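Much of what follows relies on a compact textual record of a protein's fold. An example makes this concrete, so a full record is given next.
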Amino acid sequence: MRSGLDNTERRRVLQRLGAGLVAGIWVLDTAAGPQIEEPLSHAVRTALSAAVAVAAPPAPVLANTAAQQAYDDWQAHASQRLMRYKKHAAERQEFLQTLWYEARRAGLPLSLVLAIVQVESGFRKYAISPAGARGYMQVMPFWARLIGDGDDGRLFHMQTNLRFGCVILRHYLDRERGDLFLSLGRYNGSRGQAAYPQAVLAAQRLWTHAVD
């Protein structure tokens, strides 16, 4: 939470958090606007639908003992940092294994996905923004209609949310020809503005590890 809040701001934040805690849902302010619904070509929509369709349980595919050791080292490093957000070791391990699987599947740096989750939701599974974005990666419900099965309630499911978030970010990176600044802005609905990309890139530096 930001420091230096005046009394009015502090009351407003506490009221929002108090309301969000009802029914286990956190209502958050985001750094900028939500993802914006844009027309998708049939080919793109089909490709994105296929990318989110298979929700196999995440299982690391590690070629050899060196890869296993690198994965274990990353888990230990990330788990240590994640402890401030998730107290239980088993919960941290499950989350990190799922994030590793989905980030690798989408060809994204682990530190980037961790940074987005930190900035978007503070690692809160049931976070929901005033605009309606949901879960760890703050996915807008319209994505469930465009490329999913239409059940936006599933966006609170850990693997589903991470799957959608990673696939959407990969789509924006491809659309922006690898320009991370513009892709992050598009992910957050603030394309061309610096605040959100800067926040994510600052957080990413804290999560960077050798296996990234």
Observations:
- Strands lie at 26-27, 127-128.
- The chain has nine helices and two strands.
